[in-house]
Amino acid sequence: MMIEAVGLDADDTLWENERFFRLTESGFAGLLADHGDPDQISRRLHDVERRNLSRYGFGIKGFTLSMVQTAIELTDGRVPGSVIGQILDLGYEMLSHPLHLLDGVPEALGMLEGRRLILITKGDLMDQERKVAASGLAGRFEAIEIVADKTPAAYARVLTRHDIAPERFLMAGNSVKSDILPVLELGGRAALIPHELTWQVERDDDPDHPQFHRLGSISDLPGLIERIEARG
Amino acid sequence: MMIEAVGLDADDTLWENERFFRLTESGFAGLLADHGDPDQISRRLHDVERRNLSRYGFGIKGFTLSMVQTAIELTDGRVPGSVIGQILDLGYEMLSHPLHLLDGVPEALGMLEGRRLILITKGDLMDQERKVAASGLAGRFEAIEIVADKTPAAYARVLTRHDIAPERFLMAGNSVKSDILPVLELGGRAALIPHELTWQVERDDDPDHPQFHRLGSISDLPGLIERIEARG
């Protein structure tokens, strides 16, 4: 079976992302240290984020708004305006953090040269475009697709737009929920590239599915594709 | 000259948008009535929005963050957390307001049936997708393109992706800055459909350009296209 196109996730697959959220969370907990220990504060923040997902979607602006809301809820509205200002600054810093490519990424993309590669990511349009530009990798991809959420329908639209048959498509990323399950549902193949920090919302058990592959790192991706194609 | 495809802006071209921002602004000024009259407060908010555009981009989440920041600046950090909570609620309401199509829109799109129509809008991905779905108009469009900003480069990418020659493309919308100038720059045609409320940042003088057309309303669009094509 020839693989016609390879989809690649971006955050925590090509470059660090969750690490910056964790750093920001710990700064946030520090600002509210009088109102709970860091773990309690993180749990409250995660609850608020989860409640807000359907309204704010993914990305740093929604995360910043969720931090502000958590600070208000944790303090029963007594949080000083100056602390809210510091929370806005934390969000601002995230929007301008430098980009750190993950180990092995340029080499793996180099080995995939000549293949149709599509970057498929979700979150703030503007922030994702900034990161793609800063990565210097844009030229490696036939297309950059930024979607509101990685649902089966969103993947189906991307595949239709680029005229790719699902059974000849392989998606690689660090999230079972976003990169693996929806693609398997469409009849495609999916390769999990684990990242030590993966947001809870994105985690799920490995599926028991013949089209699912678990890799050690992105360096294993070119070899996986060759083995799939060699099997015919 | 045949028009191969027509681009349509969404906010304040197909449906009301600025009206909801103005209503929210007046609610915001009401919350801060002790710190200035509504005009002063709006001016401060617009300044903050403008400063934040390069970081937050367009959309309701960035606007909400700018309201929070303005409240902090206006009160020298003394704004109570409870008022910040009310500001978050204002933003939340905007994200769920019902959709109001503008007069004449379904009729005009009906008259354009059979033509390639592409909706081209900017702002929050998730919020724009919600509005497109709520409008019931998605089926009228060959494609929905949500871009971070309406630059000449962004239009060029859309035209390339859909294989449309710029000189056979006509863009229609209410913003000289976003819908008209970048398309003229690419060699396309552009039709201004004025809306009584247009955000200051989007306004500019009518260009003196042979490919520019000013319409009275969207109802004039089908006739304009016929006249352009009849001229050969």
Automatic annotation (TrEMBL), chains A, B:
One Gene Ontology term of the molecular function aspect: hydrolase activity
Keywords of the record: Hydrolase
Domain of life: Bacteria
UniProt entry tagged with the keyword Hydrolase: yes
Keyword Translocase: no
Gene3D superfamilies xrefs: HAD superfamily/HAD-like, Putative phosphatase, domain 2
Pfam family, one: Hydrolase
Name of protein: HAD family hydrolase
